[in-house]
Amino acid sequence: MIAAALRTSGARTIGLALSAAALGACAQTGDFGRLSPNVINDALLPAAGAVAARGRGEPVSGYRLTDDEIELRNLAWGVVMPPLPEQALERTLVELARTRVLPVHRVRVAKESYVRTLIATPYRSSGARYARLQADIDADISRIEPFFASAARVAVGDRARDRAAARVPELRPDERANVDARIDENGLLIAWVRLSFDERVVTYRYALDRLVLETPDPAAVSVEASLSILERVLASLRPIGKPRGVFKG
After folding, report:
1. Confidence of residue 78 (pLDDT cuts 50, 70, 90)
2. Any idea what the Cα angle at residue 42 is, between residues 39 and 47, rounded to 5°?
3. For the purposes of burial, counting CB atoms within 10 Å of the CB of 58, is it exposed (0-12), middle (13-18) or buried (19 or more)?
4. Which of 41, 158, 211, 245 has its CA 20 to 30 A from that of 20?
5. 9, 20, 81, 200 from 242: Cα distances, Å
6. Residues 6 or more apart from 125 whose CB is under 8 A from it?
7. What pLDDT was estimated at residue 248?
8. How far apart are the C-alpha atoms of 188 and 70, rounded to whole Å?
9. Of 34-48, 69-83, 121-135, which range is least confident?
10. N-to-C CA span, the chain
11. Which DSSP state fits 102?
């Protein structure tokens, strides 16, 4: 997967980014469960990712991000990133996808990864694993409203951007391209997060079943209840826009 990405245009830049990522700094969690700011996450990987994404024919806009678009990206990180810090390899690969060094459809986290890591982590009691699973499900429930409220605001801005592009006299081709690319970038990010939420449900369901097989515990009842809430809330969501880009689910 990584070798294939290095064969794309801008391979030297991407190679430098991957070497930096190997130091283990690219998927660290900061305050409020968001990405920890550092030069790798904020400068090196995004620059390499823009080169790689253009080489793959993906939309890349040169426009600055709005406040709503920045918030959308901050909120997305907690959903697309594997929830356990011990999922180090998976978190690194997802960070490379988030910064577009690797294409999203090439970095999919297997449902087995979460529970395998959960069981391997040396908790003092089996009940602690259920508690961690419960906490991760509840955290995702709390992420739904803020993310999709932000996505709705971004969608409103994108519609305004599109209307303005139709009205501006003598709109240059590069301006039109930047408008279209930003709208597509936003749509593709929203689609990725929605897919990630759905994949989390599958992952949590698989993890709960595996925990019950290995270490049955009364805590499974409350975990099941939270998981059902997560499923119902996600099922009630309406689509926000339709991505026009090259995202592959």
Report:
1. very high
2. 100
3. buried
4. 245
5. 28, 35, 23, 22
6. none
7. 56
8. 15
9. 34-48
10. 17
11. S
Dist CA 214 CA 169 (whole Å): 67
DSSP element (H, E) containing 55: helix 45-55
Query: Do the Cβ atoms of 116 and 11 come closer than 8 Å?
Result: no
Task: Supply φ then ψ for residue 184, to 5 degrees.
Answer: -70, -40
Tokens of 215: 């270490």
Q: How far apart are CA 57 and CA 220, in angstroms?
A: 46
Q: How much helix, strand and coil, in percent to the nearest 5, is found in the chain?
A: 70, 0, 30
Residue 203 dihedral angles phi and psi, to the nearest 5° = -60, -45
Q: Tokens 């994108």, residue?
A: 158
Distance CA(24)–CA(108), nearest Å, equals 19
Indicate the pLDDT class of residue 25, thresholds 50, 70 and 90: low
- Please name the residue that has the structure tokens 């400068």: 43
Residue 29's pLDDT is 61
User: What pTM did the predictor assign?
Assistant: 0.85
Q: How far apart are CA 54 and CA 42, in angstroms?
A: 19
Residue 26 confidence class, pLDDT cut points 50, 70, 90:
low
Q: Which amino acid, residue 62?
A: G
